[in-house]
Design goal:
The protein is of the alpha/beta class. The protein is built from 13 helices and 17 strands. The strands form 5 sheets. Strands 1, 4, 5, 6, 7, 8, 11, 12 and 15 form a 9-stranded mixed β-sheet that branches. Strands 2-3 form a two-stranded antiparallel ribbon. A two-stranded antiparallel sheet has the order 9-10. Helix 8 runs antiparallel to helix 9 and helix 11 runs parallel beside helix 12.
């Protein structure tokens, strides 16, 4: 009989007492190859597991940089057409701040939209003729027509909606998600960024998908069109995969020695990135090669989907990435900043984005992926109801307007076929159910199972979070 008070166990004792535990561990690893005995992913985030059961596993954020005109796309205001050319009443403007581009105007003529609107779907959502493909799927969408921000210029506004602060240096939404929840795929980054090629407009900076003060492995990784989708990923000429593996092993040994000396967590974060890059040498070319997609998929997304780096191709690539369990995919599409020549410029933007955006949502749905994937479409603020510059019967421009804009979502956790919030008849002020940028961010984190007030990072003596000291979950739009 074994004496279990002794400190020395025989091999037979060990196997007898631990067989059930080892069996459970083995079964767990077979069912979830990236999990440890506590059920926390090896590439898991700081939370270990969400605060509560998430409705969303993955996010695709289609960011329309430059601020699309809600008044020409989704927020139908027939009064503007009726009063076209008349002055914006001071009772409506109420002395609100203007940008430097129109502050010098002596006249603020109301500009109705040149485009026809119709109601669509059971929700009766108004959609412009510029977005015919989006119009067909309104019953899949949740429109928020009462978004607002306090930021009136592009760079701080984009920075604000992407990081929760107007000032550079804070972590992006995707980085917070990666930090909190980790990744579900050990061979691809948890946060991937796609930027439409050859587009111009307001500049985009890598800090918009940066990790800020979070560990560096949580920064977004930009995938590009072309021979080298990720910069500096390929081995130099003459360096084989075996050579690279040996180099990383030796480097890892040296870095561990350095970590033992100084204890800097960035050392291990850097090594984690090196190891990820090594694995990505195989996984990235595979995910970027869309030649195996059937013809009907290319037809669904549009002809541009065959051209790498276009918005349509990036939408298709976003679907492929979330199929591989990339947790956060961010698309950026420039060109929506239309201070003048808006009617012609917005037509081009909609032609590039309408069909692939709608196709992405329906493609996810037909694959059963929309059930746990959230798709977001929107910009950084709205546009004015008055014309910037000269107003004519065929042309006008619109300045920045932070007091109201439209954003839509589709997929997991949100009420499909919903229109939430409203603006006044002039499309200038919110009259019901305003949703601040921090509210939007809090709601997004909530859908991912994260309490936005509890996911924090201590930096320079203060605990920071995505929503700063603000934000409420907009429960009214949750399914």
């Amino acid at each position: 009989m074994c004496n279990h008070q002794k400190s020395n166990y025989t091999r037979r004792d060990f196997l007898t007492k631990t067989s059930l535990g080892l069996g459970a561990l083995t079964l767990g690893s077979m069912m979830h190859p990236f999990s440890l005995n506590a059920g926390i992913p090896e590439s898991g985030g700081i939370l270990g597991q969400p605060h509560f059961t998430p409705k969303v596993k993955r996010v695709i954020y289609l960011f329309q940089s430059g601020a699309p005109s809600q008044l020409d796309l989704f927020d139908y205001k027939p009064l503007l057409n009726k009063l076209n050319g008349q002055e914006l009443p001071e009772s409506v403007r109420q002395g609100q701040r203007l940008t430097g581009m129109s502050a010098g105007q002596t006249s603020f003529p109301l500009a109705g939209s040149l485009f026809n609107f119709k109601q669509h779907g059971q929700s009766g959502a108004w959609v412009s003729e510029l977005m015919p493909h989006t119009a067909k799927i309104t019953d899949e969408l949740c429109f928020i027509k009462s978004m607002y921000t306090e930021v009136i210029n592009h760079d701080p506004a984009v920075t604000f909606i992407q990081t929760g602060s107007q000032f550079p240096g804070r972590p992006s939404i995707g980085s917070w998600v990666s930090y909190g929840l980790g990744s579900d795929n050990s061979n691809l980054p948890g946060f991937v960024v796609l930027v439409t090629k050859d587009k111009f407009g307001q500049p985009l900076y890598s800090r918009l998908w940066g990790n800020g003060f979070l560990p560096s492995e949580h920064q977004g990784v930009q995938f590009r069109a072309g021979k080298n989708p990720v910069l500096f990923l390929s081995n130099p000429p003459g360096v084989s995969e075996k050579n690279r593996r040996t180099q990383l092993d030796h480097l890892n040994t040296l870095q561990e020695i350095q970590f033992d000396r100084v204890g800097d967590p960035e050392i291990r974060a850097r090594m984690s990135q090196y190891e990820m890059a090594f694995r990505m040498q195989t996984s990235v070319p595979e995910i970027m090669d869309t030649t195996g997609e059937p013809d009907y998929i290319y037809e669904m997304y549009g002809e541009d989907s065959k051209i790498p780096g276009t918005y349509a191709a990036n939408c298709l690539l976003a679907r492929r990435l979330i199929e591989k369990d990339v947790k956060f995919v961010q698309l950026y599409h420039q060109g929506w900043d239309q201070h003048g020549n808006l009617p012609n410029a917005i037509k081009k933007q909609c032609k590039e984005t309408d069909q692939p955006s709608a196709a992405l949502i329906m493609d996810l749905k037909q694959r059963g992926l929309l059930e746990d994937t959230l798709v977001i479409w929107g910009g950084e603020f709205g546009r004015t109801n008055y014309s910037q510059g000269t107003l004519s019967t065929t042309n006008y421009g619109r300045d920045h307007h932070p007091k109201c804009f439209t954003l839509f979502m589709a997929g997991a956790g949100v009420k499909a076929g919903t229109v939430y919030g409203s603006t006044d008849d002039f499309g200038y002020n919110i009259i019901s159910d305003g949703v601040h940028v921090h509210d939007f961010q809090a709601t997004l984190m909530h859908l991912l199972g994260v309490n936005h007030e509890k996911l924090t990072f201590k930096y320079q003596g203060r605990r920071f979070r995505l929503t700063d000291v603000h934000g409420r979950v907009v429960n009214e739009i949750l399914s």
